């Protein structure tokens, strides 16, 4: 649906119809273009922030560096945000973006659960073999030496079988991880294709203001505000379990690029909001402050985690 902005131009710069239709924003001045560009930078950063950690987990065949509580908070926060986009009748681009974030979190959580279960199973199998080897005598001068030799042969065969099983499990995990990353990449490409398609499919209907919220019931507004606050609080406190885990166990297996890119996204997104000088009214506390809290509020914890990776001697490399 096409839309308009009032005023339609500022300092001779007309509003951008595509931006207004797709993103629900009135951009018609240099200042507003800077603010909008910061929002796009933040969005791109969020899109790619999880990729380095996915690759790190895949290369290590382990996700032990991540706190599952940290990822669960992210997943719940993004799920609350996604539900809020539907309850408050947001634009399709916002719904698609929210769905992508939930999918990315689910991929990381899937890696944690899969690698954790597989590695525990492999470790348990190795322990059983070692225990069996310790119980069976390797050298025996009694007439049972032939039996001992048979036991040793059986142990060697069992070890070979376990090795082949481990190799097969590793190959299976490689394929599974590739599939998960491929699905995430396909969703990201789909978002990139749907956005221009949405802009190209404008239909002639009575124009509305681009930055005017869609009609929402009072219950929808209240539920959307509640979910926004829940999402912001989950983002704010999500890093604490990861900070504690890093302090106790180190940062091995943790990609610092995850937090560096996320920090860039949070700074850009927070600046986009504050540059528009939102009025401090009821809507500010219901729909703006929670997102500021979820962007600027987490910067301290992200910087703490980056400092932890530096102090533990982990070089920041793009994986």
TrEMBL record:
Family membership noted in the UniProt record: Belongs to the laat-1 family.
Pfam family, one: PQ-loop
Subcellular location, principal: membrane
One term under GO cellular component: fungal-type vacuole membrane
Region (Disordered): 135-173
Taxonomy, superkingdom: Eukaryota
Keyword Nucleotidyltransferase included in the entry's annotation: no
Protein name: Uncharacterized protein
GO biological process, alphabetically ordered: basic amino acid transmembrane export from vacuole
Originating organism: Synchytrium microbalum
Compartmental location: Membrane
Matches recorded under Gene3D superfamilies: 1.20.1280.290
InterPro entries: LAAT-1 (IPR051415), PQ-loop_rpt (IPR006603)
Transmembrane intervals: 33-51, 63-87, 180-199, 219-237, 258-278, 284-306
Reaction catalyzed: L-histidine(out) + L-arginine(in) = L-histidine(in) + L-arginine(out)
Biased composition (Low complexity): 139-173
Keywords for the protein's UniProt record, in alphabetical order: Membrane, Transmembrane, Transmembrane helix
Topology relative to the membrane: Multi-pass membrane protein
GO molecular function, one term: basic amino acid transmembrane transporter activity
Keyword Cell cycle set for record: no
